[in-house]
Design brief:
The complex is a heterodimer of chains A (516) and B (261). With 516 residues, chain A is an alpha/beta fold. In chain A, 53% of the residues lie in helices and 7% in strands. Chain A has a domain of 111 residues. Chain B is α/β, with parallel strands linked by helices and 261 residues long. In chain B, helix 5 links the parallel strand 8 and strand 9. Classes of the chains: A alpha/beta (516), B alpha/beta (261). Chain B: This is B12-binding domain-containing protein.
């Protein structure tokens, strides 16, 4: 631990403020559900196929229920009704339900109603047990082939074709990568459905589909056995399908997900209410599945200036942490995001970056943390760019980051060449090996530049948290406090997919997950 | 015109005309002596001599990464290189923001939407949203712009009304659906509405979409058109130059890299 810099009491106060900021949003979360949450419920029951023209069955069914104005009772309830009508399989349930005018489905006697719920609850429990046993297989493999020590070196593949991604991911693992991220196709986060099946065409990335997850995890399982070192897989639970992606990822045994309580609002203009409600259920699933989430505060300082906006990162991290804890996530699952983004032509940037990373470490001592490399000020001079990345490698090992996305020397140019990943991995391995334990050897003076800067940033973060508490989170986002982006509560995409729960709303998964 | 005299040049390694270049590449074979020789042969096939395979690294089981130094016998006459002077180079994210700050002195207000019945926001999102497209940041991310993305199925009149209320400098209309030329009809209707609102010729009106080109946009009455493959930075550069021209801070006939043609 490089330094206290800040009193424990002050850090505890930051957490109290975050609690108070998040509290009112939980009223919203409790009162409402979304089309995406209801589709997730159906996916849990095994409705994962697609109908004509590739429309997912979960969408067909939820859209039908929404059009009939009855989705507010919960898709699980209607799934139960379909079973009661004699459906033998989930597919048949969808067919029966979507074929039937909903007004024909009148109220049931209280007794029948109770039985129906009990049956559906039992089925939900067995679906969750099934998922847990799949995850147990993942955890056994992790135990059999332990991972390298942290920072876990994280690299990205993004060919658009899942089979090409597999080749690149295997090569990266062989070169020393610990975590593989498959970048999604551009703007997938704005699709209000999860595409179906294996895909070989994407723009700027590969579609996140359950089948693509399965294909990649299977390849990495094989690679883990070969290398005798477990290789983690991550994807993106963001946008309009946060909880559906979380389900697909959990089912296919992924290890991490990018999952942020506010990223979609700020950077993809997804409606605020939709995002807050969706993130909660998605995080409940991550909590159950032992998935490590990666938050997206690094994005703030690609828009705002990294020096001036450093405190917004810290404030947002406390808020993200609070949302996560309230959804049942444990410290070890919090890949709190931040990055090395200060303009390299300033003076003292290594000190400033160390200060910021040490401050994050100080605030979140038990979280793995997710460290992102320079991107904003990257240059096409690959030799300079490489040296720049190496400094981030040093800060990562010095501040004991759990997960480090490695910078690519061709960052400002193109998606990484196979050799770019190799070069980044080789030098990160060198720096990590060379400097491991450096934090134990050097104490940071409490009256120096690093500590003073950390106190300054923390002080500003506290002010911002106070303001968010006094004015409310919605107003704070409306003023552009995070990432310089302003959003309105009723603006953005996906608000029409939010609905108030009926008094007899039924979601057995939420019940069970919240009780765990 | 007098032809300039010859100026023969070659790459400079550590002395004049040694022709030394450095290369790096990957071959899809496992690391071995044979792989190294293959790298040397490949380099020679490209016309290089004095090939030195400086590094051969196992990048993965079946891939070897090479760093090679070699000499090239090629030379050229620098006097014969003819590059028309680019009037203004396309500016990067940081340069453009600094340029806006200096020349415009305020944030440029931009509104965008998919208007009419079009529900496909992928185009307007790629240009305006933070995230941008293919690593090129959207206008929302530029401190120099204040960008408003109203989304899809926005009536033309609404877009214009909201843009006028915020004194927009530019309005972006995205049209993705093109069945039965619906994009042209809707675009004409937009221009009519812009004329009715008295902003035609005053506010920059830009049209974008997969079936749009600059010529079509001009025909329909827009100031510029952007077709497939347009990056947010292309639109950003255009808006800044067009604004400066309008304000008389840049000559009307100034040309710059990447302008719509």
């Amino acid at each position: 631990m490089p330094g206290p810099f800040i009193d424990d009491a002050q850090i505890a106060h930051a957490r109290t403020l975050a609690e108070e900021i998040v509290n009112p949003i939980f009223d919203l979360i409790r009162r409402n559900t979304t089309v995406s949450i209801e589709r997730t419920v159906l996916r849990f029951f095994g409705i994962s196929g697609a109908g004509a023209r590739g429309v997912p069955l979960a969408n067909l069914m939820v859209d039908k229920l929404k059009a009939a104005g009855v989705l507010n009772r919960g898709a699980a309830y209607w799934y139960g009704r379909a079973l009661q009508l004699g459906a033998k399989s989930p597919l048949e349930a969808v067919e029966r339900l979507t074929a039937l005018p909903t007004d024909k489905l009148g109220p049931l006697s209280p007794e029948v109603e109770q039985n129906l719920r009990a049956e559906v609850r039992a089925e939900a429990r067995s679906a969750l047990e099934d998922m847990k046993s799949r995850l147990a297989a993942r955890d056994a493999l992790r135990q059999q082939f332990p991972m390298s020590p942290a920072p876990h070196k994280y690299v990205i593949v993004a060919t658009g074709n899942i089979y090409d991604d597999v080749d690149q991911a295997r090569a990266a693992a062989q070169a020393g990568a610990d975590v593989i991220a498959v970048i999604r196709s551009t703007a997938q986060s704005l699709l209000d459905y999860v595409p179906h099946g294996a895909t070989t065409e994407g723009y700027g990335g590969t579609y996140a589909t359950q089948e693509n997850f399965r294909i990649m995890r299977e390849a990495l399982d094989e690679e883990s056995r070969k290398l005798k070192r477990y290789i983690q897989l991550t994807n993106y639970s963001s946008g309009l399908c946060m909880s559906e992606i979380a389900f697909c990822a959990a089912y296919e045994k992924l290890d991490m997900l990018l999952n942020d309580a506010m990223y979609g609002i700020l950077f993809r203009d997804i409606n605020m209410r939709r995002t807050f409600i969706d993130q909660y259920f998605s995080r409940r699933i991550c909590a159950l599945a032992g998935i490590i989430i990666n938050t997206g505060e690094d994005n703030y300082i690609t828009t705002a200036d990294a020096y001036d906006a450093a405190h917004t990162v810290i404030a947002s991290q406390f808020i993200n942490e609070c949302f996560a804890k309230r959804a049942g996530l444990k410290d070890w699952q919090l890949g709190i995001g931040h990055s090395y983004e200060i303009d390299p032509y300033r003076d003292d940037t290594l000190l400033l970056e160390l200060s910021q990373a040490m401050l994050v470490r100080r605030c979140f001592p038990d979280a793995p943390l997710k460290y992102m490399p320079p991107t904003k000020h990257k240059e096409t001079d690959i030799f300079f760019s490489h040296a720049y990345d190496v400094m981030a490698d040093l800060v990562a090992i010095w501040t004991k980051q759990g997960i480090q996305l490695l910078g690519m020397m061709t960052e400002a140019m193109h998606t990484p060449l196979l050799a770019d990943r190799f070069v980044a991995l080789k030098s990160a391995n060198y720096i990590h090996r060379a400097a491991r334990g450096i934090d134990e050897e050097f104490t940071v003076r409490e009256d120096g530049k690093i500590a003073n800067r950390a106190r300054e940033v923390f002080g500003q973060a506290m002010k911002l948290l106070q303001e968010c508490r006094d004015e409310g989170m919605v107003a704070a986002i409306g003023k552009g406090h995070f990432g310089d982006v302003k959003r309105e509560e009723t603006g953005g995409k996906g608000l029409d997919g939010v609905m108030e729960k009926a008094p007899d709303y039924f979601n057995p998964f939420l019940e069970i997950l919240e009780a765990t | 015109m007098v032809k300039p005299s010859k100026q023969i040049i070659r790459p400079y390694g550590d002395r004049r005309d040694d022709g030394v270049v450095q290369l790096s590449f990957t071959l899809p074979v496992p690391l071995s002596e044979k792989a190294k020789e293959a790298a040397a042969v490949f380099t020679k096939k490209m016309g290089f001599s004095d090939v030195k395979v400086a590094a051969a690294e196992r990048a993965a089981d079946n891939y070897t990464f090479f760093i090679v130094y070699a000499r090239s016998g090629m030379y050229l006459d620098y006097a014969e290189i003819d590059v028309p002077e680019v009037v203004v180079k396309k500016m990067s994210f940081d340069d453009l923001n600094a340029f806006i700050k200096e020349k415009v002195g305020r944030r440029i207000v931009v509104f965008g939407a998919c208007t009419g019945t079009d529900t496909h926001t992928v185009g307007i999102d790629a240009i305006l949203n933070m995230k941008g497209y293919a690593g090129d940041y959207g206008l929302e991310r530029y401190p120099g712009f204040e960008a408003f993305n109203l989304g899809s199925q926005v009536p033309n009149e609404d877009l214009i009304k909201k843009a006028v209320a915020k004194k927009a400098d530019a309005i972006l209309v995205s049209q993705v659906v093109t069945q039965r030329d619906v994009h042209k009809d809707n675009s004409r209707q937009f221009i009519d509405a812009a004329k009715a609102a008295g902003i035609h010729g005053k506010v920059q009106l830009l049209l974008g979409g997969p079936r749009v080109d600059h010529k079509l946009a001009l025909e329909l009455g827009f100031d510029a058109g952007f077709g497939p493959g347009t990056k947010p930075s292309d639109v950003a550069n255009y808006i800044v130059h067009a604004l400066l021209k309008k304000e008389g801070k840049e000559p009307k006939d100034a040309h710059y890299q990447g302008e719509p043609t």
